[in-house]
Amino acid sequence: MRFAFITDTHIGGDNSGWHRQPRWAGDPSILFDRLKRILDDHLIEVLVHAGDITEHGTRDEIELSLDLLDRLKIPVISCLGNHDMMAGANLWPAAVERRRDFFPADTIVRWTDCDFVAVNNHWIRDGKPQMFWSPSFNPDPSIEWQLEWLDEKLSTTPERPAVVVVHAPIDALPPDLTGKSESVRESSDAYCESLQLVLDNHPRVRLLLSGHCHVNHIARHSNRIQLTSTAFNEVPFMVRLIDMNANGNVSIQTISLREDSDPIDIDQAAAWVTGRASDRSA
Questions:
Q1: Cα gap 80→62, rounded to integer Å
Q2: What would the pLDDT profile of 39-69 be if each residue is shown by its tens digit?
Q3: What is the rounded CA–CA span in Å between residue 215 and residue 271?
Q4: Which DSSP letter does residue 182 get?
């Protein structure tokens, strides 16, 4: 099967919000129309979104985001990110229940050649959404019952390849990507190690898809690829196209939706976020 992967669309946001590259400031439907052409041209069956669908998680942003995703005319499997929780979690259920082709986490979706398992990280502490990702501020975005749920779902049909989707990444960004002196991993050790252990117990997991860091990065763990992507609403507006067969073999290509006429240029000082060649294809 062939599916597409995007993350961090941040619908409703502008350049006053945190970003690594300049954000698209125009009508978001323009980017989604470009995305639909790519999906149609490449015969994409499913779109996977790794969260931060919206910027503030308001009712208007949620409805606009779901309308934009509906225009793609294919099923969408998604988890929620920290920005999606800014107005609380209670706005999402009513909004998505009317969307027949939107599959929100926590969920398992069985497709032709693989299973998609989307898991929501937990961003709310003491009734308030926590916006910043650091080991001291938000030490563990998963809870024990979720890991048990994930382990249970992955134990079914062990012969089928699986794709796991979470918003918070677990791999450090290496110095030869970032240009920094040390690896950068903002996620806590407890979160990374506990999720990694569950994945290691299930060789059928061939892909872990994450967002949040706004960086194209690929890490390999045994027979599993762990992948993050740039923010979809930041130049050069990238989408991953992924092929997976029934044996779990994976190939990945990355396509930019940027056009020469766009009134927005990449910030060369942070051009590293688009990744090395090895982060853009596999």
A1: 11
A2: 999 999 999 999 999 999 999 999 999 999 9
A3: 10
A4: S
**Quick check: 117 pLDDT over 80?**
yes
The answer to whether 131 and 82 have CB atoms below 8 angstroms apart is yes
Q: What residues pair up with 11 in beta bridges, in sequence order?
A: 54
Q: Can you name the residues that pair with 76 across neighbouring β-strands?
A: 47, 102
Share of the chain above pLDDT 70, in %: 92
pLDDT, averaged across the chain: 92
Rounded distance between C-alpha atoms, residue 231 and residue 214, angstroms: 5
Return all residues near 169 (Cβ < 8 A) that are at least 6 apart: 187, 210, 211, 212, 213, 217, 226, 228
Query: In which band, very low, low, confident or very high, does the pLDDT at 188 lie, cut at 50, 70 and 90?
Result: confident
- Domain ranges in the chain are 2-280
d(CA 49, CA 55): 14
> In this structure, what token pair is assigned to residue 239?
């989408």
* Dihedral angle of Cα 145, 47, 163, 99, to the nearest 10 degrees: 30
What is 2-280's CATH number? 3.60.21.10
DSSP letter at 12?
T
Block residue for tokens 């062939």? 2
Map residue 179 onto helix, strand or coil. Answer: coil
Q: pLDDT digit string (tens) for 10-41? A: 999 998 888 999 999 899 999 999 999 999 99
Helix (H, G, I), strand (E, B) or coil at 8: coil
Q: Looking up tokens 């945190």, which residue turns up?
A: 18
Q: Alpha-carbon distance 79 to 123, whole Å? A: 12
Task: Quote the tokens at residue 107.
Answer: 């969920």
